[in-house]
Design a protein that fits this description.
The chain is of the alpha/beta class and 110 residues long. Helix content is 32%, strand content 25%.
């Protein structure tokens, strides 16, 4: 079983690797952002994500909650079609967190 990994790319930018599914996500996955609380702007690139289901969307929502608690700005880019479709069911796809082109602090601050 492949683990879900969050790999640093640049200052505040990370790539998420793995499958965001019920079978793969556990409480350790939800804690991946715990060591990043000093980073005030997080951009999570989901382009390497192989598969995703509603557990993946729940994970992203949990990370948003964590970032709010730590007064961080977070957004997700290159969101897999499966997650976009699930988010659209609740209107969550229109939130500021699902910005397809969030790449800089300026975009997160704007």
């Amino acid at each position: 079983m492949d683990n879900i990994k969050l790999l640093k790319q640049d200052s505040g930018e990370y790539k998420l690797h793995g499958e965001l599914t019920f079978n793969r996500i556990d409480k350790n996955t939800a804690r991946l952002l715990q060591n990043l609380t000093q980073t005030k702007h997080l951009v999570i690139d989901l382009s390497p994500v192989k598969r995703a289901d509603s557990a993946g969307l729940a994970l992203l929502i949990e990370w948003i909650k964590q970032s709010v608690r730590h007064q961080q700005k977070i957004c997700f880019k290159n969101i897999p079609e499966q997650l976009t479709a699930l988010a659209a069911l609740s209107g969550f796809d229109n939130s500021d967190y699902f910005i397809q082109n969030c790449t800089t602090k300026a975009k997160l601050d704007g």
